[in-house]
Structure formats: structure tokens, C-alpha cells
Amino acid sequence: MDEMNVELALPDAASAPDDVSVPERLQDLVIDSEDVGGFLGDLAVFSAEAVSAAVGMNVHCGITLSRRRRTATVAGSTHEARLIDEVQQAYGDGPCLEAMRTHNTVHVPDTAAEERWPEYCKVIADRGHLSALCVPLELDEGATAALNFFAPQAGAFSDSTIKDCELYASQAERSLRLAVRIGVKQQHADDLKDAMQSRTVIDLACGIIMGQNRCTQDEAFQILKKASSTRNQKLRDVAEGLVKNVAKESPVSHFEP
Predict the structure, then answer these.
(1) Which residues, including other chains, have CB under 8 Å from residue 220's CB and lie 6 or more apart?
(2) Bridge-partner residues for 145, per DSSP?
(3) In whole angstroms, what is the distance from residue 33 CA to residue 43 CA?
């Protein structure tokens, strides 16, 4: 089989230029995706079509991404691919999680006869996925991921196919690393925006309380905090409620905690 970084089949090959390389196509996926989840979905589709062309049968691709202090993100080339990976997450162990944990490729040539994860493998074998290949992606510290391929025939992934998938993964992980970094920066920007909006509405609420109670800003803030605690509501929610009452031109005559 020709090396996948040379002969990788492109999704929508009819519209893609013949000289588009795999790294360029992966870079385009990053640029065209709105967020990390969208990129993972596009990457799963692209990867499934590439490997399907390489092995000569329909292969599903699931991708699991784990980031620090976040729940695992699962994407798939199809709904079935997502389901396979979600089932593994439910079991808490399996070839994908093993690949992510050990940073080594995990090959299951026959899921019906696999003894390492018998319950999970029986489930996917019964669904018609008779071989699996899970290739880890090396990301920045605190993040791990894996490309998970599932084929309908036992022994679908030869030694040369596995090597090609590992080579492809080394290209894909660069794009995923970039997508994750962009996602982290966007999250930081969103968090900062939320913090600024929260601060603004709290300051407005404190100003209203100062006018109603003829008190200092510190005293107004303490009144707002007391109201938040008494009502078991977030400080921002209490502040927003007060500001909205005033905006409706029906302000309360006096703010009570």
C-alpha cells in the first residue's frame, strides 16, 4: 500500500485540487471549523474516508479528546462511530482509553475473540465491528486524544496499514494541537468577557442600592452579597434582577436582602 501521506484519499475529491497535501487539508479543517468540537467531527470524517480507501472497506472513525478539568469530547465520522466511543466511555476502559493512557497504538484484530476488554468488545462485535485500531495523538501537557478506527472484518488492519495510520496520526495531531490551543484562547477570552459583564452589572446594582439606602459602595456590595446568600442565588443573578427592575421603570422602593 502506498504511504497515506502521499495517496490519502480526500473527502470531496471531485472539488479538491490534486496537489493538496494531507497537512494542507488538515490545516484547512482547522481554519474552517468554528470550534474544537467542529474540528474533531470534520477530522473524523476525513480520517474515516482516508482509511476506508486504504483498506478497501467502510471504516468508522471515532475521536476521543480529554482535556484537564473538562469532560471527554467524543466525535465521530458517523453517529455509529460516536456511539461506539461513548459506550467505551461508559465502560470506563477499552482500547481507545488504553491507547490514550499508555501513548501506544492498540490493535484489536478480532473483537469477537478479544480477552482484554471482553464486555466492551462483545458489544461492538455484536454491532458488526470486528476489528479495531486505536492510535494515540500526542498533544500539549494535560490533553490526550486518540483516533479510533473500526472495521467490519476481522484482521482488517495489516502491519503496513497500522504504520500508515500512525504516520497519518503524527500529521493529524499537529492540527489538533493547534485547534485545542485556539479553543483554549477563545475560552479565556469568553471567560474574561463574562467576568467584565458580571462586574458591570454588579457595579450598576451597587449604584442603585447606594441611591436607595444612602450608603457607601462597600456597604451596598455587602447588601448585595447578603441578598445572594439569603436567596441562594448567584451574585450576578441578584444584580441582574435588580437592574432589570429599574430598567422596566418599576423599581422597588427599597432593596431588601
Answers:
(1) 205, 206, 207, 209, 210, 213
(2) 65, 137
(3) 10
Q: In the numeric block, which cell numbers belong to residue 50?
A: 482516508
How many Cα neighbours within 13 Å face the side chain of 30? 19
How many whole angstroms separate alpha carbon 194 and alpha carbon 191? Answer: 5
Which of 257, 255, 236 is closest to 245 using CA atoms? 255
Residue 206 is predicted with a pLDDT of 86
> What element of type H or E holds 37?
helix 36-55
- At 57 the pLDDT is 96
Which residue type does 81 have? Answer: A
Mean pLDDT within 82-86? 93
- Grid coordinates representing 92 are 470506563
pTM: 0.64
Cα–Cα distance for residue pair 212/206, rounded to 1 Å? 10
